[in-house]
Design goal:
Aminopeptidase, Alpha-Beta Plaits, 5-stranded antiparallel sheet, 12 helices, 18 strands, binds (2S)-amino(hydroxy)ethanoic acid, binds manganese (II) ion
Amino acid sequence: MQADSNLRVDGDRLWDSLMEMAKIGATPKGGVNRLTLTDLDRESRDLFAKWGAEAGCSLSVDKMGSMFLRRPGTDDTLPPVMIGSHLDTQPTGGKFDGALGVMAALEIVRTMQDLDIKTKHPIEIINFTNEEGSRFAPAMVASGVTAGLFDLEFGLSREDEAGNKLGDELQRIGYAGDAEVSGRPFHAFLEAHIEQGPFLEEDEIDIGIVTRANGQKWYEITVQGFESHAGPTPMTRRRDALLGAAGIIEAVNQIGMAHQPGGCATVGMIQSEPNSRNVIPGRAFLTVDFRHPDQTALNAMHDALQKAVPEICAKGNVTADITQIFDTPPLDFNDKCVAAVRGAAKKLGYTHRDVTSAAGHDAVHMGMVGPAAMVFTPCVDGISHNEAEDMTKEWAEAGGSVLLHAALELAEIVD
Ligand code: HGY
Ligand code: MN
Ligand code: MN
């Protein structure tokens, strides 16, 4: 049985929930700072759990703290259609990165309740722990444990800059669940997300059908020099760790530029010790984030970094250690799930086009262990990971409605 093409989610209710959720961690500049496993994250989790219960769902939490709100199917022995994303944000994040996917999933079960829509497969709506990878690296670590990319011990032992362990923080906020993380069965996984790039809005396309996602490689580099006095130490006898790091930053950017189209290369974090105005830095720490839609190119970027760093260090008489902390391959999403998303966009009359995701998402990890697909909506000027992140209610309603129809097709409506 097909859902009626007039069926839409309630765009006002979806928007109100997004605005309500955005109050938790709201920043003066209109963004959201809701780092994973903080008290603010707990508040957002509690609100999601409350709303899910009101929509007739029962909650289970897994050992990485990811939340699964389940709506029974008429055959509850069948694996669920999972729909979800993340509620944690970047420190200068926006209202919609992650939250759109979780609130749209919630809106789907609300719509099903309103209209007494039954499906053969159960529906599970999900909030994954630590998608952003900002407080605890790497990103998408909980869905990474689900996908078997990391083991549970690795996931729970991640430490933030203050030395807090992810597992201890889960205990502290009361979300250390007991459900197993990997091997949780699912029939299909769907995620709605803002594009976080400018192209859908620029070309006036309502819906991105995400067919592929970039691979990622993340590194941590520590440059070791020698602290000394900024005055009497002759320029020719310095071992300046920050100067070495500066050379590496330039090289990272060149590696990104040399692997176009599609390559992305970013140094997001830099620390200098002792960070004193009149001391030549003896130690520098930096992070590298590589992305590419093509595995061979991503590997070439890796090789270029391994070659460039020792050459830069030799010139500056410093040394460096490179540790790779994240390595997730490009992923083609599942044909059947992609077709369900595309068919929904067509049926509902939204303009749409196939896109590749340059950002990482939990759907990429779920797609490594089962059928998955994503729905992209435009966002204003493509801005994200920035407090100015914005979208329209119409875009949210369109994304939620396509997600609804794709989910109902995959979960099989019952008369
Ligand atoms: O890094 C990413 O692409 C995502 O925001 N975790
Ligand atoms: Mn996200
Ligand atoms: Mn993000």
